[in-house]
Design goal:
mainly beta, 14-stranded parallel beta sheet
């Protein structure tokens, strides 16, 4: 038994001195798991900084220097006064982003990332040097996630850097920009809170392309813009093909400023409470703006185009701006359709020496002036697409719709010019409303005058709108418009014709946008020759029993 015990002790001692049998798991790591139970190891070699485990590093840089590509470095709570050079593809993970702090002491960048495939999560990163950044990335496939990046000259700088992900960070109170992507493409900026930086929230450019800015909250940049996609004064190389989607952009000097940029998509953003403009587009072409909500601009305009041609603006809502909803200034050949521009303090749309713009299918509602012009009374902009497609809806249009097609019979005159919207819609979004089908009519095709007959009518609206019916009985009487009824619902109506003759029963339907169907019809005959009246015969035979006997004999 003593031999067995001694052999066991020897085996245990040997196991304590051997290198890890399985990569990524050593006795030191196992002890760290016991002493620091908050941290979970998931594959790869893992190094530890801070904490109280045996053999832990005291500085993060020392752990990086001893690491290899693919290793994980766990950093426990504390303040680490360091300026890190991350030249290996490691995963750097803080214990808690509020309490695991890397402080650059205003020397250089706080984190300088030059290796590909780096991941930085759960830190506070602060106090870079002037003209430097909290994190500077000069590499590819880096992920910066769930950090607090504050009180630096710049929050995050990407320089000649691509295919990186900046996710779920709070980037605030930096002296200049929250994020600047310079000569950097194919990066993703998603779900970050970028706020209260002294200059801009996020800059793309120069020559930064195919980046996606999605789901961020960008607010509080009162001296700069929420997002800038622009040239650099020292480099005129434009940026292109960037996507800005689903962001909340508020309380900035300008929500979005774009200069010298092309083929960008600005979609489904909420831009509000900006000081100067919601969106300012300057000297830029072939950009698309769709589904954005721009409101409560305090000083100037919702969407301002300056020397900007061949852009598409659709399905936006622009409202409650201090001056104009939409401005076209020396901006030509833009397509502007299916927007709602309402309740702006000066003009819904203001045009200054802009030509060949297509403006149709917009709701222009309750602006002080729905359109304002300054171009010496000359213009060649188009305000409708012809009788089939139609023009715009104007809240101050006073014309009539005689034929029930949803389009007014008289043009809407554009204030300050000879231009006209020749086919103004009677209702908001009238271009989205399609006529109901001609009603089906079912019921007896003939009968006797002074008898009541029942008929059914049914129409279906392709847009699912409720429908009304107008029924004309052919004898000079009608129901007027009755309803509303659900699309496809069968309704019943009765009528009595007082005179013999042939009548044309007609019915039509209209939807809630007053778009009417064609008439459907049915011929009804009320014969002049009455059928044999049994009631009359019975009364007569009761009065004269002999007549009754004769008829019984004839049977």
């Amino acid at each position: 038994m003593k031999k067995i015990i001694a052999l066991s002790i020897l085996l245990l001692m040997a196991s304590l001195t051997l290198s890890p049998i399985i990569k990524g798991f050593s006795l030191e790591q196992e002890l760290n798991q016991i002493i620091n139970p908050k941290i979970t190891i998931q594959g790869g070699n893992t190094l530890y900084v801070g904490g109280s485990g045996p053999g832990n590093y005291t500085t993060i840089q020392a752990a990086i220097d001893d690491s290899n590509n693919g290793d994980t470095i766990i950093v426990y709570n504390g303040i680490y006064y360091e300026n890190l050079i991350i030249n290996k593809g490691v995963k750097l993970k803080g214990e808690n982003k509020k309490n695991t702090i890397i402080d650059g002491s205003k020397h250089d960048n706080v984190l300088n990332i030059t290796a590909d495939g780096v991941t930085i999560t759960s830190f506070t990163i602060r106090n870079s040097k002037e003209d430097f950044a909290g994190i500077e990335i000069r590499s590819k496939y880096t992920t910066i996630k769930d950090n607090i990046i504050s009180n630096n000259e710049r929050g995050v700088l990407l320089y000649y850097s691509s295919n990186n992900k900046i996710l779920d960070n709070t980037i605030k109170n930096n002296i200049r920009e929250g994020i600047w992507a310079k000569y950097s493409s194919n990066n993703l900026f998603r779900d970050n809170t970028i706020k209260d930086n002294n200059n801009f929230g996020l800059i793309l450019g120069p020559n930064s392309n195919y980046n996606e800015v999605k789901g961020n909250t960008i607010t509080g940049h009162i001296h700069g813009n929420g997002i800038n996609i622009a040239l650099n004064l020292y480099d005129p190389t434009p940026s292109h093909h960037n996507t800005v989607v689903d962001n909340i952009i508020s309380n900035n000097n300008q929500g979005l400023m774009m200069h010298g940029t092309t083929y960008n998509e600005i979609r489904d953003n909420t831009i509000s409470d900006c000081n100067l403009h919601g969106i300012y587009l300057w000297d830029s072409e072939h950009n698309t703006f769709s589904g954005n909500t721009i409101s409560n601009v305090k000083s100037r305009d919702g969407l301002h185009l300056e020397d900007a041609d061949d852009n598409t603006i659709s399905n936006n809502v622009i409202s409650n701006c201090n001056e104009n909803g939409l401005v076209l200034s020396s901006s030509d050949s833009n397509k502007i359709y299916e927007n709602t521009i309402k309740k702006n303090s000066e003009n819904g749309i203001y045009i200054w020496k802009a030509i060949n713009n297509e403006i149709y299918h917009n709701n222009i509602i309750d602006n002080t002036k729905n359109v304002g012009y300054y171009d010496d009374g000359k213009s060649s902009n188009s305000w409708d697409k012809g009788p089939t497609t139609g023009g715009n809806y104007w809240s101050d249009y006073n014309g009539e719709d005689d034929n029930g097609d949803g389009i007014g019979e008289t043009p809407y005159k554009i204030h300050g010019t000879t231009d006209k919207d020749n086919y103004p819609f009677m209702n908001q979004n009238g271009w989205n409303s399609h006529a109901p089908t001609k009603p089906t009519i079912n019921g007896p095709a003939s009968g006797i005058k002074d008898n009541k007959y029942e008929y059914t009518f049914c129409s279906t609206d392709p847009d699912g709108d409720n429908v009304y019916y107008r029924i004309e009985w052919g004898d000079g009487t009608n129901t007027g418009w009755v309803g509303p009824f659900s699309s496809g619902e069968t309704i019943k109506k009765t009528h009595t014709w007082s005179n013999s003759g042939i009548y044309t029963l007609k019915a039509k339907a209209k939807d809630t946008n007053n778009v009417e169907s064609d008439w459907s019809s049915m011929t009804i005959t009320m014969p002049r020759t009455k059928r044999f009246n049994i009631d009359f015969f019975e009364k007569l035979s009761n009065m004269f029993p002999m007549i009754k006997q004769i008829f019984q004999y004839l049977r």
